[in-house]
Write a structure and sequence with these properties.
The chain has 267 residues and is mainly alpha-helical. It is built from 10 helices and 4 strands; from the N terminus they run αββααααααααββα. The protein has a domain of 182 residues. A hairpin with a 6-residue loop joins strand 1 and strand 2.
C-alpha cells in the first residue's frame, strides 16, 4: 500500500531524499548502496519502501527486470528472502521461495521474526514450497538484549507474556531514549538511527509512546545529509537503510503526535 505523505520530513527535504534514492537506481534495475556499486536486494528493498512512503508513482520497470533475474542462491537469510518476496508482490512478479523452512531457525530471533513475516506475506498466496510451522517455546531473549532483540522477541511473544513483564519492557524501551533524543542499543548507550524504528515499533505494539517526541523528531531530522539521505547519526554518511528507518520512524511519529509536535511541519 502506498503511503503518500512526506509527514514530519517536510516537502523540500522529501524532494532531496527522493533524488538521493533515484540516483542509486541502476540502469539494469535495482538499487545500490552508492551510484558506483552494483544493485543489492537489501538496497533495492529499502529504496522501494522509501519511494512508497514518499508517494512515488513511477512504475520502476527496471526494478522488475532486476527481480526477474535474481537467483535464489543469493542468500538463505530470512531477511533477504522476505525482501525478495515483498518486492515480487510489489512488482507483480510473485516468487515462491524454494527453500524448506527449518523449525530450528526459530531459535534465532531475527530468523524467526522474518520467517513469521514471510508466513504472513503468504497468507493469501503461497510464497514457500514448505509450510512454515512455528514452535516459539524454545525462543528466548538474550540475557543482555539490545532494542532490536527486544523488537523481534515481542513481535513473536508479547501476547504470551504477563502484564508485569510487558510493563517492564515498556519502561526499558523508553529508557533507551538518550538525552540527544534518539535511542541507544540499551539504556544509557549512544543513540543511532538503527535503534529508533525498533523502539517505536515496540512502544506502538505495547500501546505506548516515546517520552520525548519533539527531541526524537529533532534527532532524526538532524541526521539528514546535504545529499538527501539519512545517516546513523548527525554528521555521518547516508545509507538507504538509514533513510528508510528515518522516514518510517517519522511516519510512525506522525501517527503518535501529528501536529501536536510542531506546527511548522506540513501534512
Amino acid at each position: 500500500m502506498c503511503l503518500p505523505t512526506p509527514g514530519l520530513l517536510g516537502a523540500e527535504a522529501a524532494k532531496i531524499l527522493r533524488h538521493y534514492v533515484l540516483e542509486r537506481e541502476k540502469e539494469g534495475g535495482g538499487f545500490a548502496l552508492t551510484p558506483g556499486l552494483p544493485a543489492t536486494v537489501e538496497d533495492t528493498y529499502y529504496a522501494v519502501r522509501i519511494l512508497e512512503l514518499l508517494g512515488n508513482a513511477e512504475p520502476l520497470n527496471r526494478t522488475r527486470s532486476y527481480l526477474d533475474r535474481l537467483d535464489w542462491g543469493i542468500s538463505r537469510r530470512a531477511k533477504i528472502i522476505y525482501a525478495i518476496l515483498y518486492l515480487g508482490r510489489k512488482f507483480a512478479c510473485p516468487k515462491v521461495c524454494p527453500f524448506s523452512f527449518s523449525p530450528e531457525i526459530t531459535r534465532v530471533l531475527e530468523e524467526a521474526y522474518y520467517w513469521q513475516k514471510i508466513y504472513k506475506l503468504g497468507e493469501n498466496a503461497p510464497v514457500c514450497q514448505a509450510r512454515v510451522d512455528f514452535d516459539l517455546s524454545a525462543l528466548v531473549l538474550p540475557a543482555n538484549p539490545t532494542i532490536r532483540d527486544l523488537r523481534y522477541y515481542l513481535a513473536l511473544k508479547a501476547d504470551r507474556l504477563p502484564p508485569s513483564e510487558v510493563a517492564h519492557w515498556v519502561r526499558w524501551a523508553q529508557a533507551c531514549q538518550s538525552p540527544a533524543g534518539g535511542f541507544g542499543f540499551k539504556p544509557g548507550t549512544t543513540a543511532f538511527m538503527d535503534n529508533i524504528l525498533p523502539a517505536l515499533e515496540i512502544l506502538r505494539q505495547l500501546g505506548h509512546a516515546p517520552l520525548h517526541g519533539q527531541k526524537l523528531v529533532d534527532f532524526i531530522l538532524a541526521c539528514q545529509t546535504r545529499a538527501g539521505g539519512f545517516a546513523r547519526t548527525s554528521g555521518g554518511a547516508p545509507f538507504l537503510e538509514c533513510s528508510y528507518q528515518a522516514l518510517k520512524s517519522l511516519y510512525l511519529l506522525n501517527q503518535y503526535f501529528g501536529k501536536k509536535i510542531n506546527k511548522s511541519f506540513i501534512f
